[in-house]
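User: Before I run my own analysis I want an independent prediction to cross-check against. Here's the chain; please return only the structure tokens and, at the end, one sentence I can use as a sanity check.
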Amino acid sequence: MDVQEAFAVIGRNCLMQMRANQTGALAARDPEFLHQYRVGLRRLRSAFGLFRPVLPTLGAGALVREMRWLGTRLGPARDWDVFCVEILAPLSERAGHDPGFAALYRRCARDRVSCAAKVREAVASPRYAKFIIQLERFLSTTERVADAPQLKAFGAARLQKRDNNLRKIARTLDVSDPAQVHRMRVVAKKLRYASEFLQSLFPQKAVRDYARSLARLQDALGELNDCATGLRLLDSLPPHRSKADADVRGLVRKWLAARKERNLGVLAGHWDTLRRQKRYWKSALPRVRAAADAPE
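Assistant: Structure tokens:
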């Protein structure tokens, strides 16, 4: 394949993931459907960033803006899913279904339902239908760029750039700054998606070893993000209504703080393991600077 053909195949795969989970996401019964639908969208955005140097600027830019718009609807719904299902529900069970936890869960569930309704509204809108039509057209008619680089060399250069971005953040990372940790998580996720998109071009054992190390780092960063998001959602709720409510919120805060410390404790080790992994794409890097060095 050339780079445009590879982009089209990857883009269709991302769109297929979105479609496969759309009905379940809109039904809002199992949160995994919304999660996978959102992952498909995020992978799609990452693919546009990865192949940006060889895509028509005008058409790609408009589609990325629509992806951001859709992401602003999906993000809050997913945040409340995680907070209610993965944080509050297990804590409530451990507390023996304490009435204070039940009351807090009901208040959070109302916001969760409201955000899920906004997802359904967005996907049912003419704007969404237009976005999907334009995306399908773009994926089927992407024009070839003159003197486009060979796919493997292009992919190696893009992987190197994303790896460099992650290393730069890691060198000066202040783990006490949630914004820096969040930025590292975003960059690590972009690198992971790029590695998955291009894995068939490179030796599979090296790809697997690198991917496992990157996944462990990303999991720890994801847990840290869930803790920060949980605290933000807790703060967004109306003021305490009773001492019982205040006590329950305090317990949730302590649990999130402990979870945060646990993941901060393993973060450096996960990064060190990844840092020492072989950069399997280096032998395919072009000898001169090329379009693949362009920013995302």
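Sanity check: Residues 220 and 263 are 6 Å apart (CA to CA).
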